[in-house]
Amino acid sequence: MKIKDMVSRMRHMRSDDLLHLAGLQRRRSAASQIGPALGLFGAGLLLGAGLGLLFAPRSGHELRHDMKERTIGRLRAVREKTKETGDGGAWAAGQSGGG
């Protein structure tokens, strides 16, 4: 093969092809590696939550009722705690207690 033909072929090659001929490849960015991993993690999270609800020992109605009761109980505890501290919940509204 003549050098002229080789040069002609190399002009039409992409940079990835030239790197491959040299036994090299482009460096992948961190985002291109993390993105698919986060996608798989999210899919696994949703699948696990769905299976957990599917195989839960209680019915959906009982589960929702229990979650509602727990949430209400925690809200009551927070209200009691704010009454004890005497700030009237100003920290939750983003206000300072000192006016």
Give a brief description.
By secondary structure, the chain is mainly α. The protein is built from 5 helices and no strands.
- Which consecutive residue ranges, at least 5 long each, have pLDDT under 50? none
Q: Radius of gyration, rounded?
A: 31 Å
Note the overall shape: elongated
State the helicity in percent bands.
Answer: over 70%
- Report the structural category: mainly alpha
Which sequence of SSEs, written as H and E, runs from N to C?
Answer: HHHHH
In percent, how much strand structure appears in the residues? under 5%
The biggest sheet amounts to: none
Average pLDDT, all residues: 80
Give me the count of strands. 0
Discrete helix count: 5
Distance between the termini: 87 Å
Quickly list its features.
99 residues; 0% strand; 5 helices
How would you explain this protein's 3D organization?
By secondary structure, this protein is mainly α. 72% of the residues lie in helices and 0% in strands. It contains five helices and no strands. It starts with a helix and ends in a 6-residue tail after the last helix. The mean pLDDT is 80.
